[in-house]
Amino acid sequence: MTSALAPDGRLQLVIFDCDGVLIDSEGTSCRLIAEDARQAGWDITDEEAMTQFGGKALTLLKTEIEERTDTTLPQDWPVLMRDRFVEAFNVSVDTIDGARDMLEKVAALGLPVRVGSNSSMLEMNAKFRTSGLAELLEGCIHSAADMNAPKPDPAVYLKAAEAEGVPPENCVVIEDSDTGAKAALAAGMTCVLLRREPAPIPSWPGLVRINALSELPVLLGDALAQQNKASVS
Fold first, then answer.
1. What is the pLDDT along the chain (233 residues), one digit of tens a residue?
2. CA 70 – CA 73 distance, rounded (Å)
3. Is 25 helix (H, G, I), strand (E, B) or coil?
């Protein structure tokens, strides 16, 4: 596979995960899930829930909690939990440090952007509206939950590429979780993993690391410059 960040590749689309990349909502989401997990009999702290539940689809978490506690959650638990998320996000939500500035700089490079997330459209609309990012992402949001194909299924990323009319190999995905990175690589896309040092990252081909969103416009700009240079040489 030719990498969209390689000089001989073609970088045409940047696709962002939502939670942990643009929106700092994992703490709220995992805390609410942990509350239900504890009620079901799982002795898990809010801090442990961040690692245990982060980046996972609610349908998968329902099964995980049930298997861990040998209990049965309501069949519509994912919908009930989603509604609790939306209620919380309509009140308050934070962005990841530097998210707005980064999105504006990526746009200035002439690169289109899309979002592909395990969150529902209802959740993302609330998060982006409350955070003030909605104007930068209008009409560019895709939900794996609403597609019934949560990551690591690559469907949401393939859908985003299709909507933009860009081949998967010309896309770069920005992720923060191993689950999301697996989805991006399975889609045939390059993946930039946002993870602060000293946290490790998997040694998978097609994976690039950044420690802060401020590094991304520089990385993308360098890739575009190299590709332009290669095309005229």
1. 578 898 788 999 999 999 999 999 888 889 999 999 999 999 999 999 988 998 788 999 999 999 999 999 999 999 999 899 999 999 999 999 999 999 999 999 999 999 999 999 999 999 999 999 999 999 999 999 999 999 999 999 999 999 999 999 999 999 999 999 999 999 999 999 999 888 888 999 889 999 999 999 999 999 999 998 887 76
2. 10
3. coil
Give the burial class of 202: count Cβ atoms within 10 A of its Cβ; 0-12 exposed, 13-18 middle, 19 or more buried. Answer: exposed
Residue 154 φ/ψ, nearest 5 degrees: -80, 0
Task: Please give the Cα distance from 120 to 144 (Å, whole number).
Answer: 7
Produce one character per residue of 37-64: b if its CB has 16 or more CB atoms within 10 Å, e if not. bbebebebeeeebbebbbbbbbeebbeb
Three-state secondary structure of 43-70: CCCHHHHHHHHCCCCHHHHHHHHHHHHC
Q: Do the Cβ atoms of 65 and 75 come closer than 8 Å?
A: no
Identity of the amino acid at 226: Q
